[in-house]
Amino acid sequence: MIRRTVTTISLLGLLLAPGFALAQQKKEQPQAQQTAPVNQDKAAPYDQQLIRLAEILGSVHYLRTLCGAPGSDWRATMQKLLDTETANEPSRRERLTASFNRGYRSFAAVHTTCTPAARLAEERYRAEGATLAAEIAARYGN
């Protein structure tokens, strides 16, 4: 599983320049009557880096959309990352999604028009994201 995830993260590093979109609705799940703990999520050794990467992607998505930059299908790319990395781990999925949304909202609260500062922030975040994705792939890849 780590190998597929690292491949997806490597792809993110290569494609970080285009825009990105993610919208996820929380669904109410009926509570099963179990005595065992519901949360069986296991933390990966690169979870903190992955959470930061998701936040960067949210920021870059907002800024690229604000400035009208052309992009590719980042929704599908992030969805693939979520599906690969968080299969059967709903709390990890929620953490990554929340991180993406936090990155998006942090810039949405400050930038309402495309400015030179917004373009510069997008460039810097994109570079940080590409570096982070490369580091994760290099360190945890097989």
Give a description of the structure:
- Keywords: Signal.
- InterPro entries: CHP02301.
- The chain has 142 residues and is mainly α.
- It is built from five helices and no strands.
The whole-angstrom Rg is 16 Å
What structural class do the secondary elements suggest?
mainly alpha
Quaternary class: single chain
Q: With helices defined by DSSP (H or I, 4 residues minimum), what is the helix count?
A: 5
Quickly describe the structure.
This protein is mainly alpha-helical and 142 residues long. It is 63% helix and 0% strand.
Secondary-structure map:
Elements: H1 2-15, H2 47-66, H3 74-85, H4 90-108, H5 116-140
Helix pairs in contact: 1-3, 1-5, 2-4, 2-5
Q: Which properties best describe this structure?
A:
142 residues, mainly alpha, TIGR02301 family protein, signal, CHP02301
